[in-house]
Design a protein that fits this description.
Elements lengths: L1 E5 L2 E5 L9 H8 L4 H8 L4 E3 L2 E2 L11 E5 L17 E4 L3 E6 L16 H11 L7 E2 L8 E7 L2 H12 L4 E9 L6 E4 L3 E3 L7 E3 L8 E8 L3 E8 L6 H9 L21 E9 L6 E5 L4 H7 L1
C-alpha cells in the first residue's frame, strides 16, 4: 500500500504481488514510471528499502518499505519574475493556476517575459523552491483559464500516461456567434495545419483525429454560451470546430469570429479533472469566467 508522500519522496509498502520483483519493475508497473524517469532515478542514491540504499535492480520482499526520491534536482532555465499569479490548487506534485487572457504560457521570441512561466518560477523562487516549468498542457495566449503545471518529472509523465488513457478531463466555456441549434452533441472533423500557414488550422480529411463534445448552456439572440469537453487535444481544436460548425467563437479573428463584442476569442478553460497519481483520489479544479466574458453575457 502507499504509505505516504512527503516532499519529493514516495513511500510504498511492498505487497505480496511485489515479492521478488525488481524495484524498477514495481515502479514501472504499479506507478507507471516512464523508462526515462527510471533512468534518471538510477543516477545517484534515490531509492531505499527499509532505509537502506538499493539499486533499482534489487528484488524486494513483501512488507518492506520502499522509498524513492521523485524530485531529482533539476533547475529552471526560465527567469523568475514577480508577476501576477492566481493559484487554484497546489501540492507536492502539481500547481494549477488561472491564466489571464493575453498572457502567454511560455516565453517566446515575441513574448520573452511577463509570461505565466516567469510568474510561476518567480513564485517558486520566493519559496526557495527551484525546478523547471513543466505545464501539462498549454492554452492559447488569448484563451484564459486553468493551466496545470507539474512540479516534478514524475508528475508530468504520470499525467501524460493518464491523458493517453483518456483519464484527464478538461472543459472549456466559450461564447459562439449566433444561436447554436443543437442542445448537445460532438464535433469529430479531423484537423490539420492549413497549407502555407505556420499557425492556422483547418478541417481536413487528411488531418489528425479530433473529438470535441459540446452542450449549449445559454442562448441569446446574438450568441450562445457553450461548454466544450476535449476528448483529443489538437492545436486550436475548439476554435476550428466552432468555425467549421458555422458558429465561430466571438472575438476569434483568426477563425472568423465577430470582433465587435470582445477583443479576444471568448474561450476559457473552466474545469480540469485528473486522478492524483499518489493519493489515488480524483482532483477536480474549477474556475469561474473572467470579467470580460462575464460582462459580455451581462
Amino acid at each position: 500500500m502507499l504509505e505516504s508522500i512527503s516532499g519529493s519522496y514516495l513511500t510504498y509498502i511492498l505487497q505480496n504481488e511485489d515479492e521478488d520483483k525488481k524495484i524498477e519493475k514495481i515502479l514501472y508497473r504499479r506507478f507507471h514510471f516512464s523508462r526515462k524517469l527510471i533512468q534518471k532515478i538510477k543516477i545517484g542514491e534515490n531509492a531505499w528499502l527499509d532505509g537502506k540504499f538499493v539499486f533499482l535492480n534489487t528484488r524486494g520482499s513483501a512488507g518492506q518499505t520502499l522509498t524513492v526520491n521523485i524530485l531529482t534536482g533539476e533547475l529552471s532555465t526560465i527567469e523568475g519574475e514577480n508577476g501576477p499569479i492566481d493559484i487554484l490548487f497546489e501540492d507536492d506534485l502539481f500547481l494549477a493556476v488561472n491564466k489571464l487572457p493575453g498572457q502567454t504560457v511560455h516565453p517566446t521570441l515575441r513574448y520573452p517575459s511577463g509570461t505565466l512561466a516567469n510568474a510561476v518560477v518567480g513564485y517558486w523562487e520566493r519559496k526557495n523552491e527551484f525546478r523547471p516549468f513543466r505545464p501539462i498542457s498549454r492554452i492559447d495566449r488569448n484563451t484564459s483559464g486553468i493551466v496545470l503545471v507539474a512540479k516534478t518529472r514524475f508528475a508530468h509523465q504520470q499525467l501524460a500516461w493518464q491523458a493517453g488513457k483518456n483519464q484527464v478531463e478538461k472543459k472549456y466555456l466559450g461564447i459562439v456567434q449566433g444561436q447554436f441549434p443543437k442542445d448537445c452533441g460532438e464535433f469529430s472533423s479531423p484537423i490539420a495545419l492549413q497549407q502555407g500557414s505556420k499557425i492556422k488550422r483547418e478541417i481536413n480529411e487528411k488531418g489528425q483525429t479530433a473529438l470535441t463534445l459540446f452542450r449549449v448552456l445559454l442562448r441569446h439572440k446574438n450568441y450562445s454560451l457553450m461548454e466544450f469537453t476535449l476528448v483529443t487535444g489538437r492545436t486550436h481544436q475548439i476554435r476550428v470546430h466552432c468555425q467549421g460548425s458555422g458558429y465561430p467563437l466571438l472575438g476569434d479573428d483568426l477563425y472568423g469570429g465577430d470582433m465587435s463584442y470582445i477583443q479576444r476569442q471568448a474561450l476559457h478553460c473552466s474545469s480540469y479533472s485528473f486522478m492524483h497519481p499518489l493519493k489515488q483520489e480524483r482532483i477536480n479544479i474549477g474556475v469561474s469566467l473572467p470579467e470580460d466574458m462575464r460582462l459580455l453575457l451581462d
